[in-house]
């Protein structure tokens, strides 16, 4: 099963809409609660990053009997230093995002902690692609 979502950048009032809708679908399919929690956290964190840093983008999901795979693609500024961005507490979020409670610098860490596979590729000036995989045959 495949689904597609578009995410608008800077639309903080709607942040998390795609991950929330996807979570409802997973519940309807009878996916286990721990799997839903893990993929939902990872997808939500990536979705927030698209809103805060990249003026939005797209999310494509695929559910198979073996795994849940989520690809998030934006055309934002890219991540200048991915190693630094992966460090807990590092953030380039705007003042506006921080004032609204976002941008604590834990998003990439939360993604990594809650999925089985995380791949991030980013090109400055072109955007970032995040791939998140959670396998259905194992629970952590």
Write structural notes for this entry.
The chain is an alpha+beta fold. The protein has one domain: Histidine kinase-like ATPase, C-terminal domain (Heat Shock Protein 90). 36% of the residues lie in helices and 28% in strands. The chain has five helices and five strands; from the N terminus they run βααββαααββ. The chain has a five-stranded antiparallel β-sheet, covered by helices on one side. Strand 2 and strand 3 (67-74) form a beta hairpin. Helix 1 runs antiparallel to helix 2 and helix 2 packs antiparallel against helix 5. The longest helix has 21 residues, at 33-53. The mean pLDDT is 88. This is Anti-sigma regulatory factor. It comes from Anaerotalea alkaliphila. It holds the Pfam family HATPase_c.
What's the gist of this structure?
The protein has helices at 17-28, 33-53, 82-85, 95-99, 107-114, and strands spanning 2-8, 56-63, 67-74, 117-123, 127-135. By secondary structure, the protein is of the alpha+beta class.
What are the main properties of this structure?
five-stranded antiparallel beta sheet, Heat Shock Protein 90, 140 residues, alpha+beta
Topology record:
Elements: E1 2-8, H1 17-28, H2 33-53, E2 56-63, E3 67-74, H3 82-85, H4 95-99, H5 107-114, E4 117-123, E5 127-135
Antiparallel strand pairs: 1-2, 2-3, 3-5, 4-5
